[in-house]
Design goal:
Shape: globular
Bound molecules: beta-D-fucopyranose
Largest sheet: 8 strands, parallel
Strand order of the largest sheet: 5-4-3-2-1-11-10-7
Length: 454
């Protein structure tokens, strides 16, 4: 069958990773601004103060997007750029809001659809000091912030994602502490955060639907962890589903179902309450109604997966297969597992019945500028081919909305700083120059032929 005519080919970035403009035009600080300045927090002492400087160079970047032929650009809003303390009661920073309005105009003028993520990890520092996601007011703060964006941008923005990868900002930011705000909290507090984040999502959806000036689509972009069944047998497929969705220990906040079931199905996965025990937050029926809002697509941020098979003893569960010696991997050492783009859509669609939009997928690579001034990245071309061929197969069985490559350009990769290059556009952080890599040219062909060249 192949990709539909209206299939949306895009690229993604996130505000803190590409914008820079650290103290520009009245912007407030966020937890990444603070933590990246703490020695040792980010590899090589890197920070996002300048990064790709998209805040000043967005016109140049949109021009490159047009050259590639992108149909969509997924970006996020830096909350404290718009609301310096994060709280609308303390005032809106008009210049910050204007930046996003200008970016949206520039995209639309070039035929590129803006896909806006409300929150991609850069939490306002002032709200963090008031307790951040632990504060029972935090869903309200998020709702008010969303309303500001909707009021100003929904006459032009018609695709929204509420939260990017809650699994990461909750666990890496508040449990292992390797991401901002760098906390290591016990489970009871993590579960409070879990509740507030879910409520924030729900309230944001309600707000977008209520105040949007144009019909719009809403989704969210979780870490969509995929496991690949070893064979097509019913037993191995069940094993993959068990691994992706079953709650079988108190360590549940990375599981797909703990986030997506309440959001999409309106109920918590079996076992969640029991395994959480006394740490289970006080969810009311009203909470669940707020959290369970209709969505238009299922956002998949997926990069890698395990292969699993059924247990030999026939009990429910799964066994993870050892990777083959010398397995293919990317520079950040994530294994290359293209089949996640077949099995992910199939298994998520089966459970959640929402059309699939890949909101992130891509690879980091040891890219460098060659003597000829070009950046040759055959590995990334190979990666894209392999993953997209699997995704194309999924189009025979599941409704697919689009594919968003991560990332449009090399950028600040969180705790790894500038050591990982995920872009199809090369960023020279010293000169600020951008160079289209070979993979950008390949992706342009994919877009032009709507995947026929795969
Ligand atoms: C995802 C994040 C994104 C980027 C990629 C490589 O987990 O959402 O910001 O860091 O990984």
């Amino acid at each position: 069958m192949g990709f539909s005519k209206d299939f949306v080919w895009g690229c993604a970035t996130a505000s803190y990773q590409v914008e820079g403009g650290y103290l520009d035009d009245g912007k407030g600080l966020n937890v990444w601004d603070i933590c990246s300045h703490v020695p040792g927090f980010v590899r090589d002492g890197n920070n996002g103060d300048v990064t790709c400087d998209q805040y000043h160079k967005f016109k140049e970047d949109v021009k490159l997007m047009k050259e590639i032929g992108l149909k969509s650009y997924r970006f996020s809003v830096n909350w404290a750029r718009v609301l310096p303390t994060g709280d609308v009661k303390d005032g809106i920073n008009e210049a910050g809001l204007q930046y996003y309005s200008d970016l949206v105009d520039e995209l639309l003028a070039n035929g590129i659809e803006p896909y806006l993520t409300v929150f991609h990890w850069d939490y306002p520092n002032e709200l963090f000091k008031r307790g951040g996601w632990l504060n029972p007011e935090s869903p309200k703060w998020f709702e008010n912030y969303t309303k500001v964006l909707v009021d100003r941008l929904s006459d032009r923005v018609t695709h929204w994602m509420t939260l990017n990868e809650p699994q990461c900002f909750v666990n890496l930011g508040h449990d292992t502490g390797v991401h901002a705000p760098g906390l290591k909290l016990p489970m009871v507090y993590l579960m409070e955060i879990y509740r507030n984040v879910l409520l924030a999502h729900g309230h944001a959806c309600i707000t977008i639907r209520k105040y949007t000036k144009k019909p719009c689509e809403i989704g969210f972009a979780p870490v969509a962890g995929v496991d690949i069944p070893y064979t097509d047998s019913k037993e191995d497929i069940e094993a993959a589903k068990f691994s992706m969705f079953a709650i079988d220990s108190p360590d549940m906040l990375w599981k797909n179902s703990i986030w997506m079931d309440p959001i999409v199905l309106g109920k918590f996965p079996e076992g969640a309450k029991e395994y959480a025990g006394e740490c289970w937050p006080n969810f009311t029926d009203e909470d669940l109604k707020i959290i369970h809002q209709p969505l238009d697509f299922f956002g998949m941020n997926s990069y890698q997966g395990n292969t699993v098979k059924h247990r030999e003893d026939g009990k429910p569960g799964f066994e993870v297969l050892k990777r083959e010696d010398g397995y293919d991997h990317t520079a950040i050492r994530w294994p290359i597992t293209p089949k996640i783009l077949y099995w992910g859509p199939v298994l998520f669609y089966e459970r959640y019945k929402l059309p699939i939009l890949v909101t992130e997928n891509g690879m980091s690579n040891y890219d460098l500028v060659s003597e000829d001034g070009c950046v040759h990245d055959p590995q990334r071309i190979e990666f894209l081919k392999r993953y997209l061929r699997e995704f194309k197969k999924a189009s025979d069985v599941v409704p697919l909305k689009g594919y968003t490559q991560w990332s449009f350009m090399d950028n600040f990769e969180w705790a790894e700083g500038y050591n990982e290059r995920f872009g199809i556009v090369y960023t020279d952080y010293v000169t600020g120059n951008r160079i289209l890599k070979d993979s950008a040219k390949f992706y342009a062909e994919v877009i032009k032929t709507n995947g026929e060249n795969l």
